[in-house]
Amino acid sequence: MTVSRDSAARSGPEPVPDGRPPGAAGDPADVLAGLGSSWTWILTSALATLIPGIIVLAWPGGTLHVLAVVIGLYLLVTGAFRFVAAFSREGHGERLPRLLVAVLFVLAGVLCLRHPLQTVAALSLIVGVVWLLSGMLTAYAALAAKDLAHRGLVLGAAALGIVAGIVVLALPTQSAVVLTRLLGLWLVLLGLVELGVAFAWRSALRKARTGVLPGPAATV
Question: Is residue 154 one of the residues assigned to a domain?
């Protein structure tokens, strides 16, 4: 989960008050900041979580290999989104936990795609640990961020990730079908929360055009 800069000037394709496009200075960090805080980027990140959830729920009879590939790709893509979105915060203390979450997702995605680790127990352990740790880091970042917009929604999403991780780790799964349904359900729930954050941030950006600047936005 990531938090954007506290000004609509860092909202990607949205116009800024002085008319300068994001990243105009050519600084890669500024470009990443503008992209990561765009509501369309947040929306795409939400779809990257929601779509894999729908796929695994619609195909519960798929093999463990297919499930591992879908989950692995989800983790890699989500890690890339979170890496970019981490630069939408200026404070190093707020950016570091988001970068750690991004690295965690990428490493977990690589592990899921490794053939020797494609077992029900291994997938449950990897995904459960990722959701649990990312939820904890997200909650910490949300509490540490100053003037965070939609703080309650962000903390709720963090709590959802923590609960998802605990459930996946605590419930023994003896078959790929059971694991598929469990992971698919949580992916859909997390994706829907991210969609809510994306549209909430779009609303805040529209209010900014009327002269009321929003606080920092956050994405799951």
Answer: yes
Considering the domain boundaries, does residue 18 fall inside one?
A: no
In a domain, residue 19? The reply is: no
DSSP category for residue 11: S
Residue 2 lies in a domain: no
Which of 100, 126, 106, 107 lies closest to 2 in space, CA to CA?
Answer: 100
pTM: 0.72
**Token pair listed for 193:** 């929360």
Q: How far apart are CA 149 and CA 177, in angstroms?
A: 39
Q: What is the mean pLDDT of residues 195-211?
A: 75
The torsion angle over the Cα atoms of residues 78, 80, 86 and 87, rounded to 10 degrees, is: -150
Mean pLDDT of 107-123: 82
Host domain of residue 78: 28-219
- The pLDDT tens digits of the residues spanning 59-82 come to 877 778 888 889 999 999 999 888
Q: How many domains does the chain have?
A: 1
